[in-house]
Amino acid sequence: MTADTYVGAIDQGTTGTRFMVFDHAGQVVANAYEKHEQIYPEPGWVEHDPMEIWENTKEVVQRGLSQSDLDAEQLAALGITNQRETTIVWDAETGKPVHNALVWQDRRTTDRVEEIQDEGKVEWIREKTGLECDAYFSATKTEWILDNAEPLKMDASRGEDVRDRAENGELLMGTIDTWMIYNLTGNHITDVSNASRTMLYNVRELEWDDELLKEFNVPKSMVPEVRPSSDENLYGHTDADGFLGAEVPVAGALGDQQAAMFGQTCFDAGDAKNTYGTGSFYLMNTGNEAVESDHGLLTTIGFQMSGEPVQYALEGAIFITGAAIEWLEDVDLINNAAQTAELASSVDSTDGVYMVPAFTGLGAPHWDGRARGTIVGMTRGTRKEHIVRATLESIAYQTRDVAEAMEADSGVETTTLRVDGGAVKNSFLCQLQADIIGTDIARPEVDETTALGSAYAAGLAVGYWDTVDELRDNWQIDQEFEPEMSADEADKLYSRWDDAVEKSLDWAQEE
C-alpha cells in the first residue's frame, strides 16, 4: 500500500447517489452527490429509474475523482452500500430493466402480504428469514414485477411475457447493490447482508430458500450469487475500457444500515449503533448467533468477512424521528432544525406534554400501522417550547423502546450506543438520549459512517487495511454524552411515555 492510494465507496441511497473516497486514516478526500427522481405512479407506490441511478453513479464517481485531482488508478478498491430491499428485474443479455425499481417504501403488494397472513404463513417466513412478513422486503416486489411488467416490444412479437422470459432464464433480479456490481463488473452478485433483506434467503442455512422462491414464484435462475460482505475473492473488476478507464477491484458491499454498523466498528457481540435519519435504525451485533426476537425486532445478517462466519444483528426500525423535526418546521413551530435545541433547552421540562410521532404508524417494537400522531397532556400554559422539547424527547423514548427490546431479546446490556445521522449534530438530543436510556452515547468525528463502512469492507478485502483493529484505531469520538439524569427520574418520564403511546394506537379506522 502506497501513500497515494485510496478506497472509494458508492453510497446509493433512497434520494440520491454519493461517491466518497477515504484515505488510510478513514478521512474523506473526495465527495460528490447527485439526486434522482422519485416516481409516484399511484398513492403508496414509489419507483426509481435504474438507468438514471446508473448514469448518476458514473457521473458522481467521475466528478468526485476529478474535483480532488485523483486518478481511478489510485483506487485500491471500490465498495458499495445501498438502500436496502429496493428491487430491480433486468434482461440478462441487454442489461436493460424490464420495469422501474420498486422502492423499499412501496406498499403496492400489501394485499399479497395480507393474503400470506391469512394463510398463516407469517411464522414460517419469520423462522426462515428473521423478518416480519411485509411489503417492505423484495420477495413480493419481484413477484409483482414478473406478473405486471409490460412485455418488451421485441418479445411481444414472440408472444413471450415477462414471466415466461424469467422461467427461461433470460431475466435477473437483485437489490441495488447487485445492479451496481453487475454494471461495474458484469457479474451477478450480492452480499449476505442484502440477501437477508429479500425475504427469499434463509438466514440460518445461508442459502436461497427453495420453498420461499416457490411461494413467491421467483425462478432460482434469477437470483444472484451470495458472497461475503468483504470478499478477498473479489466481486470482479471495472472494465479498463469502461467509464473509469481502469481495472479497479470491486470487493465489498453492505446494505446501508449494516454499512453504518461496520463504519461504526461494531465488530463484537453487544456493540450497537443507532442511525438518526428520517426514521431511525438501531442495530446490535449478536455475534455468530441469529437471535430470535420476541419483542418485534428483525433478525438480520450484519456482515461477513472473507473466510469467517456470518455475524448477525438484531434490528429495530423506528419509522419517524428526523421527520418529526421536519413536521415542526412544516407547521411553523420552528424555522429550521438547528433551532430545536435552543427552544427545547429554554424550558426545564415539557410540563407534562408528550408527543407520539406515529405519522405513518409505529414500527418496532409496536408494529401498529393504524397508530397516528398524538400530542397529550397540554394545558392552557403549554407553549411551543414544550411541544418542541416533547418532540425531541419522543425520539429518545422511541429509541429506549427499541433498546429495551434489544436487551430483552439478546440478554446483552448496552454500555455505549454509537450514534450517527443528521439529527446527532444536535447535542441537546444526544444528551437527552443518554439520560433517557441511561447509557453513554458516543458521537464519532466522521459522520458519513455508511459510506465509510462499505469502504472498510472493500479495503479489508484487498489488504488496504490488514485488520479490523486498524479500523477501531481510526474510529475517533467527537463527543461522548454520559447520563446526567437520575435513573428514577428517567423511569418516571418514560413510564408516562407508555401511557401516551397507548393513546395513539389503532387510531386510523377505515371508513
Automatic annotation (TrEMBL):
Glycerol binds at residues 84-85, 136, 256-257. One of its GO terms (biological process) is glycerol-3-phosphate metabolic process. ADP binds at residues 14, 18, 278, 322, 422, 426. PROSITE patterns: FGGY_KINASES_2 (PS00445). Its EC number is 2.7.1.30. One of its GO terms (molecular function) is glycerol kinase activity. Residues 273-461 form the Carbohydrate kinase FGGY C-terminal domain. InterPro entries: ATPase_NBD, Carb_kinase_FGGY, Carb_kinase_FGGY_CS, FGGY_C, FGGY_N, Glycerol_kin. Residues 6-263 form the Carbohydrate kinase FGGY N-terminal domain. It catalyses: glycerol + ATP = sn-glycerol 3-phosphate + ADP + H(+). Keywords: ATP-binding, Glycerol metabolism, Kinase, Nucleotide-binding, Transferase. Belongs to the FGGY kinase family. This is Glycerol kinase. It comes from Haloarcula salinisoli. The lineage of its organism: Archaea, Methanobacteriati, Methanobacteriota, Stenosarchaea group, Halobacteria.
